[in-house]
Design a protein that fits this description.
Blueprint (H helix, E strand, L loop, with lengths): L7 E4 L3 H12 L4 E4 L4 H7 L2 H5 L4 E3 L3 H6 L6 E4 L19 H10 L8 E4 L5 H12 L4 E8 L1 H7 L2 E6 L4 H11 L2 E2 L5 E2 L5 E2 L2 H31 L3 H11 L7 H9 L24 H12 L4 H13 L2 H8 L13 H34 L5 H7 L10 H11 L10 H24 L4 H13 L6 H12 L18 H4 L5
Parallel strand pairs: 1-2, 1-4, 2-3, 4-5, 5-6, 7-10
Antiparallel strand pairs: 6-7, 8-9
Helix pairs in contact: 1-7, 9-12, 9-13, 9-15, 10-11, 12-13, 13-19, 15-18, 15-19, 16-17
């Protein structure tokens, strides 16, 4: 009797990898698994859920064995943590991606032409661009796919953003779309579609994560305004976020924030959120988005400010010392509390719109730079379910791009334009109040500054360009001579000399 062959192999049995495997089995696929620490293979196969899968699930104790168990063309998904890095050959090693390159160096000789390798980690898109080309030269098809939704999403249905070698899509599409989250009136639209060539999928996942950074920072600032300016209790905060989740702000992040305010520490009986140290961690994707925005020359200020907010939060000891030396305004808000809560909600919503607008502007610039053909409305719907930034709000973005696929900024769409303009008075009052009370709200402030800059036909960059020309002969253009130039002035000889 011929040995059974499996539909797909997965390497990397941390929680995300295990949950993806069980998700695949639930949807009728036969899966082979491998982990470099082979005891994890045996431990996983011994779990109740794995045993319930029967012969739909099998283990391997080497990459060679994993490859031998798969149907042709072989499909192998890598769910590798960066900390699993081991030395890799210099010809394909990039210092920030040693783990995947090391596995590829071992895996490539075991594969045949036409086989498919899938990287499901949070990989820097340039590595995926490089690997797609490198493996294509060897006849192997490569996919870099963003997987969002955390442990729960992996088990119950993630949002997936695959890109890479388009020839591979038809082979993995049935698996990916089966296991992904579903949305729509009939819950039958998969939150997984082909994004584009080479690194497009990982780039879109990176932007997703950057928007997530901004969303989380803005929600934290809304919480802090209510807590510090109004002295809200956790019970009051729960009620506010519960109400917000019924309207325009309905989203996964608002929902979990609401829930957080209800959890008490079993030992102390105090609210757990109040016992957590105010130092935030980060895994790097937000920083990547900010860095790449600078490379493209687009102002993704929300994610940048969110990254900086995490950086300053990590300076706990310095902040503790500074708090004993530096002074500033303090106090609480003395106006109508209910009205101010609504103003904070509007400030949060308007800032959120600016954050998403920046994310889609950056994706458009990247698509032009890297020759990708991105479907922005489709991307919005990939984020509608399964992922961390899933929200009803995304349907408005889908509709905007359906009406105008060449839309240059979401703020120009009537719905978003009206929403932001209607929120302006409240938004500005929240920022003003934060300044008056000394409450840091960098996300609200940078979002408002972006909005004011974007709606301004003129900015003070004329003086900046004059300064650059003065000290560096960088030249300038003139508003009264369109199409002419560039011009340069001998500022030293033309200046007025004080007597």
């Amino acid at each position: 009797m011929a040995e059974k062959k499996y539909d797909i192999g997965l390497m990397g049995l941390a929680v995300m990898g295990q949950n993806l495997v069980l998700n695949m089995v639930d949807h009728g696929f036969d899966v082979a698994v491998f982990n470099r620490t082979t005891s994890k293979v045996d431990d996983f196969l011994a779990t109740d859920e794995a045993r319930a899968a029967g012969d739909k699930l099998t283990g391997a104790h080497s990459l060679a064995e994993l490859v031998s168990k798969l149907k042709s063309p072989r499909k192998i998904m890598l769910m590798i943590k960066s900390k699993d890095a081991v030395p890799a050959p210099e010809n394909i090693l990039y210092p920030n991606s040693a783990a995947v390159d090391a596995v590829l160096a071992e895996l490539i000789p075991l594969l045949d032409k036409g086989d498919i390798v899938i990287d499901g980690g949070n990989t820097q898109f340039k590595d995926t661009e490089r690997r797609t080309r490198y493996l294509a030269d060897k006849g192997i098809r490569y996919i870099g796919t963003g997987v969002s939704g955390g442990e729960e999403g992996a088990r119950k249905g993630p949002s997936m953003m695959p890109g890479g070698n388009p020839e591979a899509w038809e082979f993995v599409k049935p698996i990916f779309q089966s296991i992904s989250a579903k949305v729509g009136p009939k819950a039958d639209i998969p939150c997984c579609e082909w994004i584009g060539d080479r690194g497009a999928g990982h780039y879109v996942k990176m932007v997703h994560n950057g928007i997530e950074y901004g969303d989380m920072q803005l929600i934290c600032e809304a919480y802090w305004m209510l807590k510090k300016a109004l002295n809200f209790t956790n019970e009051e905060l729960y009620n506010v976020f519960s109400q917000w989740n019924q309207g325009e702000l309905n989203s996964y992040l608002i929902e979990i924030t609401r829930d957080i305010f209800t959890v008490k520490d079993p030992e102390t009986k105090q609210y757990l959120v109040d016992l957590i140290m105010d130092t935030a961690g980060a895994k790097g994707t937000g920083k990547w988005m900010s860095q790449l925005a600078l490379d493209l020359g687009v102002p993704s200020t929300l994610v940048t400010e969110a990254v900086y907010a995490r950086c300053i939060s990590a300076m706990k000891e310095q902040r503790m010392r500074a708090s004993q030396i530096l002074t500033g305004p303090t106090g609480t808000y003395h106006g109508n509390r209910e009205e101010f809560v609504e103003q904070v909600r509007q400030a949060l919503y308007a800032s959120k719109i600016c954050s998403y607008a920046q994310g889609f502007v950056q994706m458009r610039a990247a698509a032009k730079e890297y020759a990708w053909s991105l479907n922005y409305g489709q991307i919005a719907m990939l984020w509608r379910g399964g992922c961390i930034i899933r929200a009803v709000f995304l349907e408005r973005i889908r509709d905007a791009f359906a009406e105008n696929p060449e839309l240059e900024n979401l703020l120009l769409v009537p719905y978003f334009k009206n929403a932001v303009e209607n929120a302006q008075a409240a938004w500005r009052n929240v920022v003003k109040t934060a300044i008056e009370l000394g409450i840091p709200t960098p996300g609200f402030m940078t979002a408002l500054s972006y909005f004011d800059s974007y709606r301004s036909a003129t900015l003070p960059a004329n003086l900046l360009q004059a300064q650059r020309d003065y000290f560096g002969a960088h030249t300038y253009h003139r508003v009264d001579k369109p199409g002419e130039g560039p011009f340069h002035t001998d500022w030293i000889n033309e200046r007025r000399v004080e007597k």
